[in-house]
Amino acid sequence: MAGGKVARSKAPFLIKTPRGLVKVVGTVFNLRSLERKDVLSVFKGRVLLRTPRVEVPCEAGEQAVMLSEKAPEVSSLR
């Protein structure tokens, strides 16, 4: 599990998971990499999720679920 605050900088903060790449830019987030999926919750700022097929933004107040071989699904935080 990764999470915390990331200050804005010129170099991006990248997290590689088995299902894709997470690019974090000046934000507060939580990322859980589980056996079959990754779950990203964004509390402040914006995070980009990149898979081999697509790049998807996840904004503050949203949660994204990445499953193998599927585009990330973004929804509102509950």
List the helices and strands and how they pair.
Blueprint: E1 2-6, E2 13-17, E3 20-33, E4 37-50, E5 55-59, E6 62-67, E7 73-76
Antiparallel strand pairs: 1-3, 2-3, 3-4, 4-5, 4-6, 6-7
Structure commentary:
- With 78 residues, this protein is mostly beta strands.
- Helix content is 0%, strand content 68%.
- The chain is built from no helices and seven strands.
- Strands 1, 2, 3, 4, 5, 6 and 7 form a seven-stranded antiparallel β-sheet that branches.
- A hairpin with a 2-residue loop joins β2 (13-17) and β3 (20-33).
- The chain is globular and about 30 Å long.
- 21% of the residues are buried.
In short:
The protein is mostly beta strands and 78 residues long. 0% of the residues lie in helices and 68% in strands.
Features:
78 residues; mainly beta; single chain; 0% helix
Order of H and E elements: EEEEEEE
Shape estimate:
globular
Alpha-carbon distance between the termini?
20 Å
Share of residues in strands: over 45%
Structural class: mainly beta
Alpha carbon gyration radius: 11 Å
Average pLDDT rating: 84
**Continuous helix count:** 0
Question: Which spans of ≥5 residues are poorly predicted at pLDDT below 50?
Answer: none
Biggest sheet character: 7 strands, antiparallel
Q: Work out the helicity level.
A: under 10%
Number of strands: 7
